[in-house]
Amino acid sequence: MSASAPYPEFWVRKMRSVFVMFDHDLDGVVKKNDFVDFCIARAKCLLKQEQIDTFKDQINNAWDYFWAGPEKRVNVTLRDCIYNHARTFREPTFQEEQRKWLYVYFDTVADKNGHGYITRKEYEEFLGLFGVHPLSVPPSFEALDTDGDGQISKEEFVNAAVGFFCCTADTPAKLFMGPFLA
């Protein structure tokens, strides 16, 4: 997809939903602290100190790489958010960076008990880090549990996340971050 081509509407809806998750004051701008500080404050209620420390690094890196983009913005508009996440279509390494980040995140934060999979409760806490209401978890969990074994494996987690951010089609991965907000 070229930089001048319009982005697929379904993909834009997903990015708009993620943007709205963090535009808490509804001013049309997500500031770095709207994203980072909010997630870290939530982590303090849901994670152990060692996980919080790892999560702080991860969420700061996520802001710097995925949200702020090469321009290193501290304030991101919806247009900026869409453009920066659309690098998945323009930069061959962008999707691989997502995968690396997600594997580390799975191992150190999401899989809280270290068993190699995420339970429904762990997924609820994962979504809770981003402010998603617990009642939104069951349909998301079921959509990501592609083999129906009652847990989300590392591969299911990473594939769903990459699918959420990179896939332009309407797939079950659309529920990775919970239901659409916008």
Automatic annotation (TrEMBL):
InterPro entries: EF-hand-dom_pair, EF_Hand_1_Ca_BS, EF_hand_dom. SUPFAM superfamilies: EF-hand. One of its GO terms (molecular function) is calcium ion binding. Keywords: Calcium. Residues 111-133, 141-167 form the EF-hand domain. SMART domains: EFh. This is Sarcoplasmic calcium-binding protein-like. The lineage of its organism: Eukaryota, Metazoa, Spiralia, Lophotrochozoa, Brachiopoda.
